[in-house]
Amino acid sequence: MKRLIILVSICALSVRLTTVVAQPTLQDNLPLVSVVPISVQPVDLPSTVRWAGDSDQLELIEANREQAEPQLQLETWTLSEDAVSSLGVSHGFQPTPDVGSILAWSPDGTRLAALSFENIVVYETATGAPLFSRQGAPEYFLSWRPDSSQFAVISLSDFFSFDLIDAVDGRTERTYRLFADAFTRAGSILYNVTWGSETELAAIGAGDHRAVLNLETNTESNIDDCCTEGAYELEWQPGGRLLATHNQVYDLDSRQVVFTYPWHRQVYWSLDGHWLLGAVGTELTLISVSEQRVVAHFSTAALGEDHIVREVAWSPNADHAAIFTATPGINTPSESLLSIWDIGELISQAGQ
How do 83-93 and 102-105 pair as beta strands? Predict the structure, then answer.
């Protein structure tokens, strides 16, 4: 499928941005930074993106729905001097997962997992060939082990456990049950697990359950104080010992909150662990972890009032971010966009 990237015109977007910048941010009443993305491209769901190489290439997997039989396709894009161009589609993936499926690259980029209520399909990304398919999971999360050998999903046996799945043949290596008092405290459904290393991960569940699990010793450490009440977002710093939640960073070694920031629905670590992007609705906040401060607020509202952030992928050197947005699709079909943002330009504009 031949696609055209929409190179966003500054003049065209400035009309929308005048209304956006005039409004205070919902975060802390500071004005939004007036920036626009380098490029914007419509995408079909399901879709996912990752940066390859030294931050100059993106690999986009999306459903091609122009065909009679929709098919996932892998397309490569190159970023050069703030211009993005397509290098073309290399191959497709079969069978095609449902529109609502979650797509998740393995950390090494060699596999793609597609999770739906019906099944989990793992593909070899180099060829698009399926490696295995197994029965799906009742809740939507899939978390890859850092070495790409396994991934975690909610267990089919109960919502308080997760299964560790072998990424080669789909076998359940082991089932881990967390929160021993889950039946004594209401609402203990497991929300997510986030990996810190090959042997250590953190888990968060309803009822304000939070814990770190060591897979080698099979021990569970309570970290309920890492989050404010009602939190369900927990992300481990790449290569570090910090956890990011909706509104604060927590040090696992000292068991102390390092600093707080405005509330977000999702948070995304840069690969070097120095930055966070927090998202809520159409708003994003760039946070410097080393300086422990909010650097800038910006908005995707220039793309459309209802384009809500649903995924962020940092480039390896943290100079760009690829951001997926989508409209709710309640009365009309959902529209999804992939936009590329210059983080250096954002920092520069925020400092003026």
Answer: unpaired
